[in-house]
Amino acid sequence: MSEKIEEPQHQIADSEQIVAPVEDHVEDPEFGPEPTPEEWESLREVADNIPLSAFLVILIEFCERFTYYGLSGPFQNYIQNPPPPSYPADQPGALGRGQQTATALNTFFQFWGYVTPILGGIIADQYLGKYRTILIFGIIYAVGLLILTLTSIPSAIDSGASFPGFVVALVIIGLGMGGIKSNVSPLVAEQYRSKVPFVRTLKSGERVIVTPRATYQKIFNMFYWGINVGGMSSVATTELEKQVGFWAAYLLPTAMFIPALLVVVLGRKRYIENPARGSIFIEVARLTRLSWKVQGGLDACKPSRLEVENPELMKNVTWDDVFVDELRRTFKACVVFCWYPIWWLAYSQMTSNLVSQAAEMWTGNVPNDIIQNIDPFVLIITIPIMDRVVYPTLRRYGYPMKPIFRITLGFLFGSAAMAYAAGVQSMIYKSPPYYEGVGEAGAGNWISAGIQIPAYAFIALSEIFASITGLEYAYKKAPESMKSLVMALFLFTVCLSSVLQFALVSVAVDPKIEWMYVGIAVATFICAPLFWFCHHKQDDTDIEDDGIVRRGEVEDAYQAHKPTIAEYEKDVKHEDA
What we know:
The protein is mainly α and 577 residues long. The protein has a single domain (49-197, 216-276, 336-550), classed as MFS general substrate transporter like domains (Growth Hormone, Chain: A, Up-down Bundle), CATH 1.20.1250. Helices cover 64% and strands 3% of the residues. It contains 24 helices and seven strands. The strands form three sheets. The chain has a three-stranded mixed beta sheet. It has a two-stranded parallel sheet with strand order 1-6. The longest helix is centred in the first third of the chain and has 31 residues, at 98-128. The protein is globular, with a radius of gyration of 25 Å. It starts with a strand and ends in a 5-residue tail after the last helix. 50% of the residues are buried.
C-alpha cells in the first residue's frame, strides 16, 4: 500500500482559504516567508528541487511509453501493407488492408485509448486511489500486449487470425493505457507537496521566490522528456519489423513493460498519494445544481454566504468555501481544454498519414515509419534547453512564459507543421515517376523522405508549448480530490480529435490528402489568436488561482517537503550561472 497523505475533508469549519503561506504557520527555518508585492517585483522566480519519488513515477511512464510507441510505431505498415515474400523486406506488412483502413484503425486506437482515462480517473479518485488503479490497469495492459504479440507470428498471419487478434488487442491495450494515463501524471506532480510561493535566501546571499508554478513546469518538462526518451523505442521496432518481422517488433515492447510493473510494485512505499475521496461526483453535481438555482452562481453557494443569504439551503451542504473556489477554477480550465481537439488533430498526423507520406518518397534502406522518431529526438534535445536555459532566463528578466501564452505558441507551431506537410505532399505529386503516390512495387517518387524532418520538428516544438503545458494546467487547476478525473478530461480532448480524424478518413487518400493538410493548418492557425483573445486574462491570475488551498494542506506540505539549502542550490545552480 502506498503512503497516503490524508486530505482534509470538506467541512465548513476547515474552510479558511489562503493564497500564500502565513509566516506564523511556517516554523521550518529552511523555508522563508510569503513574498511581498515588492519582492514579487524585485526577486526572480525559480523552481524547487524534485523529490526522488517523482523520478520513480517518471521511470514508470518511461517504460509505459517505451511500450506504447514501440508497438504503435509499426501499426500503419502492419495494417496497410500485405505480407512481403521474405525478410528483410523493402516494405513490411501483414494485414494488407490499405491506407484508409490503417488510418481508421490507428484513429480508433487513439480514440479508445483516450476515452478510457475517464474510467481510470473515476476509479482512482472515487474508489481505489492512483497507485492501485495504475497497478490493476497495468495488468490489463500486459494481457493485451501478449495477445498482440502472439497473433503477429507468421503462422497466425497465414491463418487469418492476426486481424481479429489485432482488434481485440487494441481494445484491451487501450483500456489498460487509459487507466494508467489518467493517474501517472497527477501522481508525479503529487510527489511535490509545497502548495504556495515562499522566499528563500541562498548561500550566495541572493534572495529568490520559489514557486509551485515554476516547479510544476519543471516536473512536467522532465516527465515529458521521459515520455519521449521512451518514444524512441519505435526506432528499434520499425527496424525489427523490416528485418525480422512484426512478432519481433511487438515482443520488444512487451518485454519492456515488465520493468514498469516491477517499479510500480517495488516502489509502493515511496509514493506519496492523496487518498480516494469517495462521493466527490455527487458533491460536484449537487453544488453545480444549486448554483443554477441561487443568484450569484457558484460564489453564492459558499457556505459562508448561504448561512446569511439562504440558510434554508444549508442542510445538504457538504462542501466548504475553498472547494467552491477550486471547482470554479476547474471549470475555467476545462473551457481551455475545449480548444485542444484541433491541435491534437494536427499532432495525430505524425503517426498515421505522415508515415504513409514517407512511403511515397525515396527512403533508401530506412523504414518509412522510422522518420516519425524525429519528433521525440527533437524533444529530447529541446526540453532540457527550455527547462535549463530558456525558461529560467526569461524568469530572471521578469518575463515568465505563462500557460495561456505557451499554449497559443503551441497552436502556431502545430499549424506550421501541417502547412509544411501540405507543401511536401504537393512536391510529391510533382515528382516522377509515379506523381500521385507509390508504384506497384512499393517504390516511391524521386524525392527524399528526409524533406519531412521540419514537419516533425515543428510538431515537437508545438508539443513543448501545448501538450506539456496542458498536463501542467490540468494538474494545477484541479481540486486535490479530482486530480485524476480532470487529467482524464484533458486527455479526452485527444479522443475528440480522433472523431474529427474519422471524419477526414475519406480524404486521407491521394490526391485529396494535400488539401486535408491545408485544412488542418488553417484551422489550427485560426484557433491560436482566438484562444489567446478568449483566455489571456487567466495568465494574469495564474498564481492567485494556484494559491487556492487549505491551511492544513500548506502545513502538511511544509512538513512533508524539507529540502536542505545544499540540495536546493544544487538543483537551481543553472539559474545562478
